[in-house]
Amino acid sequence: xTHRAPVNRIIRFSSVDGPGNRTVVFLQGCNYNCRxxxxxxxxxxxxxxxxxxxxxxxxxxxxxxxxxVLYAYEACVFCDACIRVCPHDASPRIRSLTAKETFExxxxxxxxxxxxxxxxxxxxxxxxxxxxxxxxxxxxxxxxLLDTNGTLDLFSRPAxxxxxxxxxxxxKAWDARVHRALTxxxxxxxxxxxxxxxxxxxxxxxxxxxxxEMVDAERTVRQTARALAPYLHLYPVRYKxxxxxxxxVRKEYASFATPDPPYLAYLSDLAKSEGMREVILI
Length: 282
What we know:
- This protein is α/β, with parallel strands linked by helices.
- It has 2 domains: 4-42 and 94-281, TIM Barrel; 53-85, no CATH class.
- The chain has 8 helices and 11 strands.
- Helix 2 packs parallel to helix 3 (127-139).
């Protein structure tokens, strides 16, 4: 069976989305509403309002007879005009690709890549597509990583779990109330899945974005590191602590403060004091 997913973009070469040189596939759609989201245009699927069509300088967007917005990938100049005018945190610049079609674009980078990372939005909204895509990757010995908010139980999806080499998981806040205020969702599933992935050696990286006005950073970093410490002998989980920056966020959150380097260094020391061996500050 062929599975499709809405592909927002494919970055041919990246050195920041997992180990080594990788191709990264970004899928459209997310079940979270993170206040600090740096790619808010990946949150929603296009509702075909058509506000973007008149603003496309390349004529890559048009409406069909049924009122649906059509996107011509070959004509697009990627100027982002459509994204800037969209009132729905969406993008019309989406291609509905099968796993095989996606893999054909990934394959062009071989042998210059070590692996493939799929991100979003929230990529695990499309588990069957991911399983098929990763199976194709494994046939050519490409390493496979998921970049996820941690809500999907991978253990209930063995077809995907078996072909996933590792998971990069966001721990947005340790306190459930803070997490809900930040994302509109609780974090119980996220923390359970984090531990389960650490136990089986598939947790590659955890990440926390430090947004002082909203995130309980000290508690989050301390408790996350403390929870993972017993499993680090099984697999060297990396902790990436990321400073909130206003670039790309929605206007109502653009005035929030960026944490200073000494505070990030303090958080790094805190994580290490609880047992984390590899901490990266961004």
